[in-house]
Design goal:
With 424 residues, this protein is α/β, with parallel strands linked by helices. The chain has eleven helices and twelve strands. It has a single domain, classed as 3-Layer(aba) Sandwich (Rossmann fold).
Length: 424
Amino acid sequence: MFSHGRFAKLLAVRIYEWVTTAQRRNTLTVFAMGSASSNHLGIPPGKGPNTVGCTDFMVDHTTQGSLFRLYYPCQETASTEKPDWIPSREYFNGLADFMKINRTLSEKIFNYLFGSFKIPAYLDAPFKPDGKYPVVIFSHGLGAFRTLYSAICVELASQGFIVASVEHRDESASATYYFRREGSEEASGGDALVKEWMYYRPLQRGESEFPLRNKQVKQRANECIMALDKLTQINSGVPVHNVLQTQFDWTALQNSMDLCKVAAMGHSFGGATVIESLNKEVKFKCGVALDAWMFPLEDEIFAQVKQPIFFINSEKFQWAGNISRMRKLDSAATKRKMITIRGTVHQSFPDFTFLTVNWIGKLMKLKGEVDPELAMDLCNRASLAFLQRHLGLDKNFNQWDRLIDGEDEHLIKGTNVITLQSAI
């Protein structure tokens, strides 16, 4: 998800010096670093007609279970409670490990820069019944976790989708957690659960990367399918046990989902997860892959996937070999779509792009040259148009059909990367 190595460490040290200097002087916005006090920083709210709620769900407390954040249209509420963007300090530790930065150093930096940001959705707000909503299962990138793509998920929910953002337990998330039994089940009555953290697993010295990533992408796809299965049970009125015991009323979701209109969506490693999920589960009617990293996929999968796929790429991340693997999914029977957003980088899709001022964002490659909100609007609108087309939605998202074909001054039809194959 982030660039590694010496640069990140040096930058972290320098920011740490600025943070501690600012705190000594009681100047919380030294160099307009990007704390939440800046009026120009924050995750944009949804632009659709629905207010958005969110809640967390965990089925099975073990590593074999599923954890996801659900975004959904909610009723108007007097509540002002919005969840923290970073749910707990352990996620800061995970990001530090992923970036290869000292945890003590990074927790202070990350907490200063990002600790006060909120997700623009109401925590555990009452669900808004309004017919049957289509469903999207979202898969995060390498080193990310379930909350880092809230700008995309909130927008989809505001436009009338139920979105489950999965937090993967394949050791590709920077951090996630599960629960273990305290003592024997007989002694504890089966109720005593202790939280255990699972952090990102780096590639070991001498280890071949493909076997690890291929194993992970298959587990990731299974976790996306598990999330869909759990939503299917909830939709059918089957009683469910949420290990997290939130205040949200899950029974309100009964008969609320159109499970004939389900899509998979993801970024980077999550883009590969989309393709693996389509291959494993035909209930996914189409997929949207954001700057997909195709390396984890076996070659055999390309001829097997039948559903429509929409590749939305950044201008700076892709390379010829990766694009060529995307094109292996193209066929005479099913032609896939691809666009590239001008002036974007790989991190133009997660929320970090909205939460760092320009100089930090560009130094850490969290921002491109294009305005982040413009890039996100193009991504979201093109995705909505594609979803309407292939899920058969009765919406007005077809007003953005031209974006699917790259017809905008900020878009490139196909790719800016030169390959031996013709453009899609």
